[in-house]
Amino acid sequence: MKIQHTPLEGCLIIEPNVFTDERGFFLESFNQQKFADQTGANSVFVQDNQSYSKKGVLRGLHLQKGGAAQAKLVRVIKGEVLDVAVDLQKGSKTYGQHFGIRLSDKNNLQLLVPRGFAHGFVVLSNYAIFQYKCDNYYDKPAEAGIHYADPQLAIDWILPHDQLIIAEKDMQLPNLADAGDLGF
């Protein structure tokens, strides 16, 4: 696999080796030893999640606070999304900055989203099957997030606002300036 650094410290693009022939393709989507050796990350993933969403669905920007924080390794099984990570680590050189990348079943890229980051994605294709590994268990009381349209972040979600499908709970999330202590 190949590792590419993003402008956000610890947020990495992972490109797996894909072997194709007349039958189709094969790729190793995850190998703990190779992951640790090549990324330097000490994450041990304990939970896998998968979602199915139709075009325009925007999920985010989500995180878990404090000791329940999660690093995530995200990928798209089918379709295409714009995936976004936001650095929320106090004292970080890139605090409040975001990075976005298109993940798809065509490019097979993965994004490592470190602890202390908010994460979200919007579906650009007709539908997407999105999968992510977490290095900490889901903890409902630790749920938090930042509003997807926070003007301070100024994220370009690519699709027009009237095409976005957003959960009511995500519409109620605060802007970064109003989020308070997120425990990072």
Keywords:
6-stranded mixed β-sheet; 184 residues; mainly beta; globular; 42% strand
Short recap of the structure:
The chain is built from two helices and 14 strands, in the order E-E-E-E-H-E-E-E-E-E-E-E-E-E-E-H. By secondary structure, the protein is mostly beta strands.
Q: Which class do the helix and strand fractions yield? A: mainly beta
- Number of distinct beta strands: 14
* Largest sheet data: 6 strands, antiparallel
Instruction: Please tally the helical runs, counting DSSP H or I stretches of 4 or more residues.
Output: 2
| Helical fraction | under 10%
Radius of gyration: 16 Å
Give me the strand/helix succession. Answer: EEEEHEEEEEEEEEEH
